[in-house]
Amino acid sequence: MATFKAIRIDKADKGTTAQLTQFDEAELMDGDVTVRVEWSTLNYKDGLALTGKAPVVRRFPMIAGIDFAGTVEASSHPQWKAGDKVVCTGWGMGETHLGAYAEKARVKGDWLVALPHGLSARDAMAIGTAGFTAMLAVLALEKHGLSPKSGPVVVTGAAGGVGSVAIAVLSKLGYHVIASTGRASEADYLKHLGAAEIIDRAELSAPAKPLAKERWAGGVDSVGSTTLANLLSMTKYGGAIAACGLAAGMDLPSSVAPFILRGVCLLGIDSVMCPIEPRRAAWQRLASDLDREKLIEITKEIPLAEVSDWGAKILAGEVRGRVVVKIV
């Protein structure tokens, strides 16, 4: 059987190891579609898996990478045929199922979404799981009833992948976007994306009051912990916060006050097991509502061989915007 290049994670005496190596095609897991992977991307969860900082990987050996875009090579699934351009995010790739940092992937056809018209495979991974998650958050806020007329919206972790795409999309839709960041040097970058205001994340880092002054109608949070508690306490009556990350921790030191006294809603966003119809809707909206020029400007390209080094950088908060990984 043929071999192909892949970032392989193995169990070690102390933690895990990740290295670029040759992987045997015979070791690919069950699936009815084999894809020639062309592009992947770097997400926060990828950083956790590559460095072993959190128990993201649940089986060994594992090929890292939670999303890809590429071309179908072989299929026994009725929806897909050789030559189709597809995108795959989540579903346990890089965690329980061999992932995307490889020249080949074998997955279930039910996991795939057709590459939207107008997006290249590289574009799709410039968006990646982070951008897809950001759009799911925007769709959830819209479903809640939020519109630009509702008032300002806040985006935390603003210079990261989720934050960057969320700002670009929300500003294009007409929202007054408040960007929260711990990197003052990124102010010009965030304003160029469409942020109308920038606040220091320190404003959201102190222990949260049960209720604070109302500042925004909604928001997208990728930070969690005290930051999310503060967002909730500052959300206007009837507003909502879409929560999709835990960069600061999994805890939520809040109270019921925002929910029972202001009718605030906390909207949970999961991109991993998201059903197929919302996936298609989110990708179609990304194709239409994300400024392609801004996407180009927030994206850096790296080769597969550099992925492990960049995994540590994204955890250290040293990555701005999106990083695409060229596989072939």
Furnish the topology, listing elements before pairings.
Blueprint (H helix, E strand, L loop, with lengths): L2 E9 L4 E9 L8 E9 L2 H8 L10 E2 L3 E9 L9 E5 L14 E4 L5 E2 L6 H24 L8 E3 L5 H12 L4 E5 L5 H7 L3 E4 L15 E6 L3 H9 L1 E9 L13 H5 L3 E4 L7 H14 L2 H6 L1 E5 L3 H9 L6 E5 L2
Parallel strand pairs: 9-10, 9-12, 10-11, 12-13, 13-14, 15-16
Antiparallel strand pairs: 1-2, 1-4, 3-5, 3-7, 3-16, 5-6, 6-8
Helix pairs in contact: 1-9, 2-3, 2-7
Essential attributes:
16 strands, six-stranded parallel sheet, 328 residues, 9 helices, seven-stranded mixed sheet, alpha/beta
Question: Care to describe what's here?
Answer:
The protein is 29% helix and 27% strand. Helix 1 crosses helix 9 (307-315). The protein has nine helices and 16 strands. Strands 3, 5, 6, 7, 8, 15 and 16 form a seven-stranded mixed β-sheet that branches. Strands 11-10-9-12-13-14 form a six-stranded parallel β-sheet, with helices on both faces. The protein has 328 residues and is an alpha/beta fold. The radius of gyration is 20 Å and the shape is globular.
Shape: globular
Mean pLDDT reading: 96
How many individual helices? 9
Q: Main β-sheet: number of strands, strand sense, barrel status?
A: 7 strands, mixed
Query: What is the H-and-E element order?
Result: EEEHEEEEEHEHEHEEHEHEHHEHE
Which class best fits the helix and strand makeup? alpha/beta
C-alpha termini separation:
20 Å
Question: Which regions have little confidence, pLDDT < 50, spanning 5+ residues?
Answer: none
Number of strands: 16
Into which percentage range does the β-strand content fall? 25-35%
Radius of gyration: 20 Å
Helical proportion?
A: 25-40%
Protein name: Oxidoreductase
Domain Enoyl reductase (ER): 15-325
Pfam families: ADH_N, ADH_zinc_N
InterPro entries: Acrylyl-CoA_reductase_AcuI (IPR014188), ADH-like_C (IPR013149), ADH-like_N (IPR013154), ER (IPR020843), GroES-like_sf (IPR011032), NAD(P)-bd_dom_sf (IPR036291), Zn-ADH-like_protein (IPR051397)
